[in-house]
Amino acid sequence: MFWRKKRLNVEFHDQIALSTPLEELSFVVFDTETTGFEIFGSDRLIEIGAVQVKNLVVTKQSFQTYVNPKREIPQIIHQLTGINDEMLDEAPDSFAGIESFFHFIEEQKCTCLVAHCLPFDLSVLKSELNRHDHEAKIPRGVDTLDLLRTLNGYSPKKDLAEYAQEYGTPVFERHRALGDALTAAYLFSALLHRLLDRGCKSWGDLLFMADQHRRQIAMS
Length: 220
What we know:
Helix content is 43%, strand content 19%. It is an alpha/beta fold. It has a single domain (20-219), classed as Nucleotidyltransferase, domain 5, CATH 3.30.420. The longest helix is centred in the last third of the chain and has 21 residues, at 177-197.
């Protein structure tokens, strides 16, 4: 008998025409905080934050939850984030926290997840679900770093706050999930307007732009 993971059912509104105008899309920009970078090892999720971008602007729809990592918070992470063990004692476990986050995504009728350095945040979600013997369908995602590389070329990787300052968008509480999600969301909104000026009008155009620098790397 083959062992199969359970599936966390969540409805994403990603089955849309590529010609759908950007103004009609609902994005959820999110961020995670963890005890470290060894997310497939001993490090764990401790916070999720998210905010909706719709009609090309950041809305008031937001989400935040702490997550109990079932381990101590390293001192360096406490110093960086301000999160301590006591703040997480009564927090839900990672499965319940991710499930609540997915419900928020459903409520926003999300077409696309967005994050700054998206692969890391998606890996955090997947690794935590795996710990609970679950998997989930994750919708198409867009990384703000990919859009920045498409717009700016191969500039050195900067901190999220540096990009926000470069584009004149606000910087919220750093190294906290909701604060970084808000910073990324306002940056993403500014990037969407820049892309519109370059003729990026639709869902299909955005996907093309997001993948453009990867195609350039493959051809070089």
